[in-house]
Amino acid sequence: MEGHPMDSVCDCSQCELRKAFFDSFSDEDLGDICRNKTEFPFLRGETIFREGDLIRYFSYLKSGLVKLFKTDPAGKDQIITIAGPYDFVSLLGVFSDTHQSYSVSVLEDAVLCCIDIERMREIALRNARFSMNLMERMGAVSNKIIREGLEIRKRNTHGKVAYILLKFCKDIYGECIFDLPVSRREIAENIGMTTENVIRTLSELRKEKVIRINGKEIEVVDPAALERISNYG
Amino acid sequence: MEGHPMDSVCDCSQCELRKAFFDSFSDEDLGDICRNKTEFPFLRGETIFREGDLIRYFSYLKSGLVKLFKTDPAGKDQIITIAGPYDFVSLLGVFSDTHQSYSVSVLEDAVLCCIDIERMREIALRNARFSMNLMERMGAVSNKIIREGLEIRKRNTHGKVAYILLKFCKDIYGECIFDLPVSRREIAENIGMTTENVIRTLSELRKEKVIRINGKEIEVVDPAALERISNYG
DNA sequence: GAAGACCTATGACATTTATCATAATATGAC
DNA sequence: GTCATATTATGATAAATGTCATAGGTCTTC
After folding, report:
1. Which stretch of A46-50, B135-139, B153-157, B195-199 has the lowest confidence by average pLDDT?
2. Can you name the CATH fold of A12-151?
3. In chain B, where the domains are located
4. What is the CATH number of domain A155-232?
5. Phi, psi of B163 (to 5 degrees)
6. Which 39-78 residues of chain A touch chain B by CB within 8 A?
7. CATH 2.60.120.10 given to domain B12-145
8. Over the stretch B130-152, which tens digit does the pLDDT of each residue have?
9. pLDDT higher than threshold 60 for residue A36
10. Option in A128, A140, A142 nearest B126 (CB)
11. Which of A111, A188, B79, B214 has its CA 20 to 30 A from that of A43?
12. B203-210: long-range contacts (C-beta < 8 A, 24 or more apart)?
């Protein structure tokens, strides 16, 4: 894990993600976690951890945007998913596996909240409601990744590109106009097609006046048409 | 849930899956579960539950083979995965969702062990080690599904077919000769290609003397070649 | 500011995959 | 057993997708 711990000015009792993870905590446990957590700020392009690294922390994203990916023997990356604050938390292997099974790197400056894995385990073992919350939270993340994989698998190239554009505009940014946080190649690595065809498909959507393109900036001009393409293709 | 409860002759303390789920149980909790579980036998072709059904049980497969799938508005099925005893257990939504998010039906006669969801929750809430075991177990299943999805996504048709044949021979049956528990169409629904191309690809593998086909019976004659095709394609 | 690396873009072409048609075989219902 | 239906199979063709080549633009590094 790169990055340098930042002064932990954060008060866990005020954390907006508290409800998702620590709602069941006693003041004591919350104080314990709060004093023992470390926040790591990361800049765009930095790698948080790599496939195969030892798991030392339970971690969740407080802010920013990351990509989860695997690298094959030939050095080609395959992106598992792109995730924001509520979508990225150590997946379920965190208590059973010893090593990371994928890499995570930063697409938009991020803050990661990290809790020593042993301390986390210890608390989980004496607070069953917390274990349950954790299970629900991590389960939701896993399920989302599984569902997304199925949606991508069943679409053709146009459908795939439309699907991921809609993910950016609906799930990630909540706006029809946004700056793509990834390259065309990374989109290709995410949805399983070639970079050239991603570029070509984007150009076609532009020619059909469904989107407007200005470098990294994308504007979804005709969301209904994009939905149709996503659902049909 | 169809099927009729069978006489519960099973003694949980002897259950071969016990270690996976109930290792941390006190004799008391184990007895409690054992007395309150219900075993449902299912025949090939039967549906265990459908997407959208109310979740009433925590369930895991004791024996047999099942498929997890989703049905789209047009009525087309998409198979999420094919799972045996250690690979199928209520996924992580079981404590947070109220309804099933996919359907499960039976490929090979199966026995499902079911525990009332409320009782399960209650035990999980007072036995944190059990919650932890559960989390690990369910996490392993989720992770396996995610990984499988990625492997399928990155392969071309030959690689996909080779991949799933290897799954049958290595993971499911542990033998190079086996009866396919699914139709060619179901294979297509699993790996995201057309039925015709699954059939064609199988025929090609036969012509290349990598496999032998006799109806549902498949023999992997040249496992090394099949591995190469799976890894290259 | 020059060089190199990467990103975006597009065209031409080859290959892969899907679609449509047809038929033999197998399976299930009555 | 027979009829209806689904499955397996194969070929012909169309459509989609990948590969290769080229080029201008952008960004980083020295």
Report:
1. B135-139
2. Jelly Rolls (2.60.120)
3. 12-145, 155-232
4. 1.10.10.10
5. -60, -45
6. 70, 72, 78
7. yes
8. 888 888 888 889 999 999 999 99
9. yes
10. A128
11. A188
12. B204/B158, B205/B158, B205/B161, B205/B162, B205/B165, B205/B229
